[in-house]
């Protein structure tokens, strides 16, 4: 973990958000962080909107496609931007910027088709939202990352990143991740990343954690996530997010 982290004697992390930083924005992952299979946890929307009232801009960075994330942004009623497809798509309509596509997903799709010829019970079509996916390809194979990575290492697609989020397996062009998408989004708004808080739960959030000034992990199931974060919530998943939001609101109102 990074240097901000403090721990109680019990081993549970204590939030130690630096008070000498002018925090401008908070970026949330979506699945496993803001919502799960049961939807939003009770009280989430009110807490998110409270952050906006406190002048902390709320943005989203997700592995979902842009058409999937946009309604979530609208429901939350927040003023920040969207980074979708793990950094491949950036849209900041609130600030007047056009949609930016940072990669071409055709090679990732071709790699999936080839993998289907090499692996049993492998569905190259992947998840249904691939019909809107422009920069990567997403598969129902979250537990086969090592197997897929080893196979692709010997092919023309060896440069693709293979990232498991726990929900799905993403085939992504090299250099495209949440940090690369955030770099453009921050530049467009003239936001200093050191003044941004990031909250997430999975391996695809690690680049975002490293990019931002303070990072919060709400789960410890995925390798490297806790080590990359400044704070680990006591509760897990969406309930960890609620826990952190309460602490953050108290921080800004004390």
Give a quick rundown of the structure.
The protein has 8 helices and 13 strands.
Task: Please give a structural write-up.
- With about 250 residues, this protein is an alpha/beta fold.
- The protein folds into two domains: about 25-100 and about 175-254, Rossmann fold; about 105-170, Hypothetical Protein Ta0175, Chain: A, domain 2, CATH 3.90.1070.
- The protein has eight helices and 13 strands.
- It has helices at about 45-55, 65-75, 105-115, 145-150, 180-190, 205-210, 225-230, 240-254; strands spanning about 5, 15, 25-30, 55-60, 80-85, 90, 100, 135-140, 160-165, 170, 195-200, 215, 230.
- The chain has an eight-stranded mixed beta sheet, sandwiched between helices. It has a three-stranded antiparallel beta sheet with strand order 8-10-9, with helices on one face.
- Strand 5 (about 80-85) and strand 6 (about 90) form a beta hairpin.
- Helix 1 (about 45-55) packs parallel to helix 8 (about 240-254).
- The radius of gyration is 18 Å and the shape is globular.
- It starts with 5 loop residues before the first strand and ends with a helix.
